[in-house]
């Protein structure tokens, strides 16, 4: 029988702005994430502009990618930026020490990254090397990128083909310093962050926004220690009562990956899974809400004004790669990934007061991708369609939502059957995005709009035949969203959500 649900959107209540950067991306030198996925080189038969493939650029422009974090990940703390500038033929052939000791040609470096950002219209989030680098190396990189042309670093940049300084609005101060980025304790990292923060700055454009390394998953002690010791220049008042009030950090990160269960060493397959794999992954995604609430509650104690953002700068579904995967951490995408993305993004939207950036791991050919490439071919994933459907939330005002819905129950898993977030854009249009987690049952949803006058409603839905329907290079895309019937009357909207689906509703 069809399930029945009710929701209420508080249109008049208003809420925080959904930072467009919640729809941000992460790209690392890993597998074919950069080489082939973005960079094919100017001499490639694959259509490109200055070596950057045009099909990928066009796809990313369409979903309005706002910001990209680069060059890692674990790669960042072994990256030395000077290897990646200068004449293409003269760059050292390096070794990717983070990922399989594979060759690193350095063909894609700072200039190519900035060119790529320019082509898609996204902002830079550059992670500097704290683990194996130095304050001097990181500062030199920022000078190289942002100093005016009449300075020595600006002249060097100009000699390499880019006279004007670039804008670097976001700077990651290390990556996973508790693990691959340095095996540090929270106290050691807090001291290192303070040290770097004293020297890292931009030399033109917007002031540097530093993002400190935050917790892995539920490491609340890390958040506590780093907030206590590194948020402010002077965390404790002096005997005469002097304090400082300007946060050293713009944001604190959080890394959280979804797999089928809670075991890093048994993540489950990414294709060919059954309902156990479906339910276990969705249960883990649901933890995102608890993680944000608990990390944010700690941040609230040090930063009640919510000046410091929680930046979920690595998130996504990470399953076991198939043995014949064409590159490291390459995953084929299925309908389950669309649900993972939809639920995660709804949760970020609902926490827009504190979550002001998030970066999907990783944009191309790695883990939960937006696009996949195979030589000259490119396909967009179900996750891509979700980002496309959800882009209407970028920069909109988040609205409170309440929902009454039957639970989706499978084995030990019990979750609210549907998951929603809502926003109102600058033109006054209302958007509600809805995930129906139930793999078998449709859900008739009635949404009461508390306030506003509405005269038109429409919806698009993404679903597929099976929970593990996958994207392939040789068949038509089975995930293209299609129109869904909506009934609007007075302040109420009614629609029937297919099982295992993601819907975007627009009301104006
Ligand atoms: O995204 C893959 C890896 O996951 C990143 O390099 C690292 O930061 C995290 O552990």
In the CATH scheme, what's the topology name of the largest domain? TIM Barrel
Number of helical elements? 9
> Ends: how far apart?
32 Å
Binned, the helix content reads 10-25%
Give a count of the beta strands, DSSP E runs of length 2 or more.
Answer: 27
Domains, number: 2
CATH class type of the largest domain: Alpha Beta
Radius of gyration: 23 Å
| Widest sheet: strand ordering | 2-5-8-9-10-11-12-13
CATH-scheme architecture of the largest domain: Alpha-Beta Barrel
Largest sheet: 8 strands, parallel, barrel
Superfamily at the CATH H level of the largest domain? Glycosidases
Low-confidence parts, pLDDT < 50 over ≥5 residues? none
Q: Strand portion, in percent?
A: 25-35%
- Structural class determined from secondary elements: alpha/beta
**Large-scale geometry:** globular
Global mean pLDDT:
97
Q: What molecules are bound to this protein?
A: alpha-L-arabinofuranose
Keywords: Carbohydrate metabolism, Glycosidase, Hydrolase, Signal
EC number: 3.2.1.55
Catalytic activity: Hydrolysis of terminal non-reducing alpha-L-arabinofuranoside residues in alpha-L-arabinosides
Family: Belongs to the glycosyl hydrolase 51 family.
Describe this structure in words.
- The protein is of the alpha/beta class.
- The protein has 2 domains: 115 residues, Sandwich (Immunoglobulin-like); 344 residues, TIM Barrel (Alpha-Beta Barrel), CATH 3.20.20.
- Helix content is 23%, strand content 27%.
- It has 9 helices and 27 strands.
- The strands form 7 sheets. The chain has an 8-stranded parallel β-barrel, surrounded by 5 helices.
- Helix 5 links the parallel strand 9 and strand 10.
- Helix 3 packs across helix 4, helix 5 packs parallel to helix 6 and helix 8 runs parallel beside helix 9.
- The longest helix has 28 residues.
- It is globular, with a radius of gyration of 23 Å.
- The two termini are 32 Å apart.
- The mean pLDDT is 97.
- Bound molecules: alpha-L-arabinofuranose.
- Alpha-L-arabinofuranose (AHR) binds next to loops.
